[in-house]
Amino acid sequence: MSVGKAIGHVVLVTTLLPGAVLAQSSMGTVNGTITDPTGASVPGANVTLVNEGTNVQNTRQTNDAGYYVFVNVRPGRYLLSVEMSGFTRAEVSVFTVGVNETVARNLRLELGALSETTVVTGQSELIQTSTAELGNIVEQRVIQDVPLQGRNFTQLMLLSPGVNPISTAQGPQSEIGFGASEGNSGVPFSTIANASVQGQQNRSKIYYVDGIVNTSVRSGSYVALPDIDSLQEFKVQSHSDKAEFGGVTGGVINMTSKSGT
Questions:
Q1: Are 78 and 95 in contact (CB under 8 A)?
Q2: Is the pTM of this model over 0.90?
């Protein structure tokens, strides 16, 4: 094969497999729009996001449409505040950002002195409109308090709607999808729920730990068993509208580990 043809094949492979070089993320997003009492957008407002556990803070300015966005937000509890000359300081009560979750916080500023503070509460969303994905977050409290045989987190996946232990794949799996799978490592004889998500094959799902792939190519289960005590939370999601998960017809199990506080 000539050098020119070889280079052409490399370019073709790179073009056809863009997902191989794209990183996945367990981080979340916080966005929203800032308006005045009349409903008009407020450009140039300073929006500050503070992690309650670490006290790390980031500040953004709203654009001409009054819109702001924080990306790569580590899962945790946060406090949001907005400051703009001519308006009172607005503060959102503490809220939680989950794994790979987009949280919208829209604020209306009130006229007054910047030394005054308006605390906004009751912004829980009945319908999450920021993305079209379906998912369920298994929180740290559940991971720690629910008894697990072999300390295996996969049993908690069954708490999510659309997830069941029925085997829909070919290969050496038991009738209900429990039992060790090829390539797994971890606690000997621990129970592995190689679950099916939304009726798809058991192999049609993928595991991430802090954005790193942890999936057995042949069995569709995890490879290295994460330590329960190191997990902050994980999310079982399906029907995602995000391009980085477009190659999975089943579910995405996105885990994040604890960080210092």
A1: yes
A2: no
